[in-house]
Automatic annotation (TrEMBL):
InterPro entries: KH_dom-like_a/b, OsmC/Ohr_fam, OsmC/Ohrsf, OsmC_Ohr_Peroxiredoxin, Peroxiredoxin_OsmC
Protein name, as recorded: OsmC family protein
Keyword Oxidoreductase: yes
Keywords, in A-Z order: Oxidoreductase, Peroxidase
Coiled-coil spans in chain: none
Range of residues in the leader sequence: none
UniProt-recorded Gene Ontology molecular function terms: peroxidase activity
Length: 141
């Protein structure tokens, strides 16, 4: 079992609040996020962008391993994930993540590749998470 962590800090509330996200690895350290980075075009990150990065990375790695198991050792995969946030029922919902893949795998049959890609899409852990039940444990200080 592997556990990875990230932290988010938010100072102030609502549109005027400012946040910072950091990851266990240090790849992100106090990366700015807030209303303007999420709903407008201010520089910084946002949760949907991070989910898109995770989904693109997870799917691409899953497909890479599937191709290796099928005997392929050369090629390239490049995936874009577009995560859509919509307002619904008085709140916001991530309604979809669209994966767009460009691949080069010498010698593979188009149908075999399509099957492997579909399996990777269905079985990568982030794809599964996007349809998971979410629970909350909290402590108020």
């Amino acid at each position: 079992m592997t556990t990875r962590t990230a932290t988010a800090r938010y100072s102030g509330f609502g549109k005027e609040g400012k946040g910072a996200i950091s990851t266990q690895s240090g790849v992100l350290t106090d990366q700015f996020y807030g209303f303007n980075t999420r709903f407008e075009d201010e520089p910084g990150t946002n949760p949907e962008e991070l989910i898109a990065a995770a989904h693109a990375g997870c799917f691409t790695m899953a497909l890479s391993f599937a191709l290796a198991r099928a005997g392929y050792s050369e090629g390239t995969l490049e995936t874009k994930a577009a995560v859509k946030l919509e307002q619904k029922d008085g709140g916001f919902v991530i309604t979809r993540s669209d994966l767009t893949l460009e691949a080069s795998v010498p010698g593979i049959d188009a149908d075999a590749f399509a099957d492997l890609a579909e399996e990777a899409k269905k079985n990568c852990p982030v794809s599964k998470l996007l349809n998971a039940e979410v629970s909350l444990a909290h402590k108020l200080n």
